[in-house]
Amino acid sequence: MTFLHQKFLLSCLFMSIISQLSKVSSRGPIYKPPSVEQLTNRFPSTPFSGKMSTFFGASNIHMKNNGSYADIILDKKTGSGLVSKDRYHHGFFSAAIKLPMGDTSGVVLAFYMSNSDVFPNNHDEIDFELLGHEKRRQWVLQTNIYGNGSVKTGREEKFYLWFDPTQEFHQYSMLWNTHHIVFLVDNIPIREVIYNQVSSSVYPSKPMSLYTTIWDGSQWATHGGKYPVNYKYAPFVASLGELKAEGCLMSKTNSTSPGSCLKSSTLLTSDPVEGDEYIKLTSQQTAGLKWARSKHMFYSYCKDTSRYKVLPPECRA
Ligand SMILES: *[C@@H]1O[C@H](CO)[C@@H](O)[C@H](O)[C@H]1NC(C)=O
Ligand SMILES: *[C@@H]1O[C@H](CO)[C@@H](O)[C@H](O)[C@H]1NC(C)=O
Ligand SMILES: *[C@@H]1O[C@H](CO)[C@@H](O)[C@H](O)[C@H]1NC(C)=O
Q: Active site annotated at which positions (predicted)?
């Protein structure tokens, strides 16, 4: 074998190893995620038109396919959003989301639960926030939790995604029960908030509504407002599908009645996420969680010592 020949073969081998390990695209390496249980398959999808109603910007909400899909749009005139008709006490909440392409700096797509409308001074919140980006950057996924109004302590974590969220639909899910809160992306847990480790006084514990919104976050989203929304690229269209909202139902009109699974002290119907299989993560899910956090998380409030002189208790656990 000639030297050149050898070199050629070696470089072929090298290229094939590279292409197997990571598909390199213009936006950097795409990692192959570990396989995990498909939690989303356990819960039925339901039309947006059945479970959600207009929160704001009705003219920028377009239901499709008989309500199984919804586009929510931000343009110069307005953003838009949907809110669940019911409130929920615990449950599994998920949507498949496809984000707008191109320069989206300042655009925020949020998929979250909140009860700030009912408890303005001591509200709870569980948030997915997808933050748009200027040219040549990528969408950032932020998660956050507020419990009983502790708004002074933001519990933000930020991730880069291991896929391009503008090309296809990807599933963003929240599981919330008395044991833990789990954020999942395509069924891979990216964050787990365990009840014991967080002081019970700041664990989201009151019924919440489910929201999805798209809005102009120029003031804070992209490097603190350095790159505001550029409406030259509007409209910004986020497409949503595969809505899952399975939880203990609360009447919207009677905020004192307990959830439908929690009426009095006996369970009426079973809480869909209160069974043994939802008490803690499986070993596969734990491996997925470690993978996501070690490879894709780039900010955690727990590491932010410039922001917190004394880190919140769960960060020291
Ligand atoms: C559309 O949705 C309505 C209400 O959910 C349902 O009654 C109807 O059968 C659906 N139509 C089709 C074609 O799926
Ligand atoms: C939540 O806050 C309210 C009002 O500040 C307080 O009365 C209540 O005890 C708190 N709940 C928990 C679980 O700490
Ligand atoms: C609200 O719920 C409570 C507890 O279930 C019940 O006692 C009360 O009658 C309800 N109020 C209304 C207006 O339905």
A: 125, 129
Task: Round to whole Å and give the CA distance between 179 and 58.
Answer: 37
Residue 166 beta carbon below 6 angstroms from any ligand 2 atom: no
- Closest Cα to atom 8, ligand 1: which residue? 66
Number of H helices and E strands in the chain, helices first, is: 4, 17
Mutate to test the pocket of ligand 2, among 148, 152, 203 (most ligand atoms within 8 A of CB): 148
**E strand spans, 121-260:** 125-131, 140-146, 157-160, 170-176, 180-185, 188-194, 209-216, 236-250
Which amino acid would we find at residue 23? Answer: K
> pLDDT tens digits, the chain, 317 residues: what are they?
444 455 444 454 444 444 444 444 444 455 788 999 999 999 999 999 999 999 999 999 999 999 999 999 999 999 999 999 999 989 999 999 999 999 999 999 999 999 999 999 999 999 999 999 988 889 999 999 999 987 778 899 999 999 999 999 999 999 999 999 999 999 999 999 999 877 788 899 899 999 999 999 988 766 666 789 999 999 999 999 999 999 988 866 665 666 677 655 555 567 888 888 899 999 999 999 999 999 999 999 999 999 888 888 888 76
Among the four given CATH numbers 3.40.50.300, 1.10.1240.10, 2.60.120.200, 3.40.109.10, the one describing domain 36-251+263-316: 2.60.120.200
Cβ burial of 183 (10 Å; 0-12, 13-18, 19+) is buried
User: Scanning the structure block, which residue is given the tokens 């596969």?
Assistant: 284
Range list of H helices, 216-282: none
Domain parsing of the chain, residue ranges: 36-251+263-316
Backbone angles phi, psi at 279, to 5 degrees: -75, -45
